[in-house]
Amino acid sequence: LQRLATPAQPAGLPNVLAASRSAWIGVAVFSAVSNVLMLTGSLFMLEVYDRVLPSRSVPTLVGLALIAVALFALQGVLDFIRGRVLARIGHWFDEMLIARAYDAVVRLPLRTRTGGDGLQPERDLDQVRSFFGSGGPSALFDLPWIPFYLWICFAFHFWIGFTAVIGAAILIGLTIATEFMTREPMQAAVSSAMSRNALA
Length: 200
Description:
Blueprint: H1 13-19, H2 21-37, H3 40-55, H4 58-111, H5 120-133, H6 136-142, H7 146-156, H8 158-199
Helix pairs in contact: 2-4, 3-4, 4-5, 7-8
């Protein structure tokens, strides 16, 4: 991202997305490695029950514990780097599109009659930047790994996989229900905020 300079003319969203493709690929790679490392705890417990308890070998337990700690530390570092990269992407999006947002703020009242204070394009860009800095993009990159984890659960035992599928279905149902229940109040809150800003 540091090699990309801010253009003299306002950049469009397709150009910005195309220019940040390499950064998104890096985030995807970090997400893949982090999701594989999520299995560290489960594999550690499997090794403890399979090797340590039958042999009662303390050195084996210490070695496995050190490996698990190192892998957990690596996962934490990767998650930290991924969060920093996403925050940098959000900041870079803001720098690349802020000229277009300012241009919209200036020209929008001349083209149409707005009911707000005219700063909505700038607030939309702020929301996009905040979204990149939150856990939303990380969750989107982690979402494709759900079938992989379900396959692992079914590989251990059918009922373990079945329980995981039921739990995932319950979580998805709760998410959809929450979306439908909060949609109208959120729209009302946004409308009230726009009216408040226009009055101010």
